[in-house]
Amino acid sequence: MMELKPLNLVPPNRPPPGLNLFPNLNPSQKTLTFHKFLVLFLTFIAYAAFHASRKPPSIVKSVLGPEIKAQNGTNGWAPFEGPSGPHRLGELDLAFLLAYSIGMYFAGHIGDNIDLRLFLTVGMLGSGILVIAFGLGYFLDIHWLLFFVIVQILCGLFQSIGWPCVVAVMGNWFGKAKRGLIMGVWNSNTSVGNIIGSLVASSVLSFGWGWSFLLPGIFILVVAAFVYMFLVVSPDHIGLELPSKEIEMNVEGVALVGSETGETEEEGVVVEPETEGAIGFLQAWRLPGVAPYAFCLFFSKLVAYTFLYWLPFYLRHTVVAGVQLSHKSAGILSTVFDIGGVVGGVLAGVTSDIIEARGVTSIVFLLLSMPALLFYRIYGSVSMFTNIALMLVSGALVNGPYSLITTAVAADLGTQSDIKGNSRALATVSAIIDATGSVGAALGPLLAGYISTRGWNSVFVMLILSISIASLLLIPIVKNEIKEKLNEGKWLWISMIKR
Description:
The chain has helices at 17-21, 32-54, 56-64, 85-111, 116-139, 145-159, 162-173, 179-186, 188-203, 211-230, 281-285, 290-316, 327-333, 335-355, 358-379, 384-414, 426-451, 456-487, 492-498, and strands at 264-266, 269-271, 319-320, 323-324. It is an all-alpha fold. Mean pLDDT is 81; it is low at 6-10, 69-73 and 249-276.
């Protein structure tokens, strides 16, 4: 396999055009704290817009695919109607997510070498246009499967730009202190975006499924304009510096986060980084912890994205308290899982900060999610209350480790001392981890589309088995974390239990 070599194309340190149009936003008028919150908000709403634009396919599945009971003489939308409808819909998910995962490997490497603001804007514009193009299939009465597949492939490639860009920008502005909490709160952007996409797509579904794509597509285009105008990639682009206590240092005193040059001042001495360009692709894979977490995310994201793409369809085809839910009700109810995801992401982040062990936090959430999914499958249809309560818990436990690994863990691994001062490796490491996870995300919905025709019990068995494998992959990391904490004299209660 050929390794992607560093391009060494250092992006210019230009402030965004919005700061020239509105001089009162410049550092001379606004503090570092203000710009941190501005970056936090813009990256949050940007990635929420990405996820909002991904949600329509799951909302319209029960309309495109075979109906439970045809009320208007139709049986779905060709070519997704009939008994093989779920198979075609699963293949459509595969087209998007496979392109997304492949694009992610390249997007991270490119993002470490060019202007992240422009790159992120391009990704958002392309995504918005292609989401709208999918919706035009309804208005233009298109029934050609290849059209929808091509649109989804291209959309997946543009969507892959988003994550490595926003994580790298966050890494430039926020140090390791309270990273789990900050990233946990910030990563609720995925769940917030899912909720926005679900509510918007469900609310206009009765007017025709095309509208469920048009509005989220327009939303991401509008947000792209704000990102282009106001997003500051790094503090040094506008002449700001992070306080020394927020800059991560390796054992030699070299800055790992805080500026794109990696320069920092410690007791009046400016230390230059050993490496100025982005690290190589294979070099990033060899960093400690990257491979185990990447493959853990493969199985964890497989579960999360199966729910993302198939939960509304599952709710539509499952009787809850003796009642068959409508398309709109199923779409709105599915947002409970994402609300749980917000809670789980924040809880996992806070917990990992307190115990200072990302791996232990992740494996505990994964182990607890298995009985939660089992209970949801068995008792979710008893009443609406039990369905909501168990869905909320399942969403928190499934999304907790997924959120933690893609944010705080990726940022930790992308700024560790092994990189020896290379502060511009974060997008590459983040992309490797999330891209590997996205391969699992592509596989999960595809398998669900085929397995669901045999019964939903089989789907839940697949999900629980995937979580089991994800947990096993973390065991070496967890053992090292526990050993490290015991050597440091922390977690004394473990020693007491052993005695």
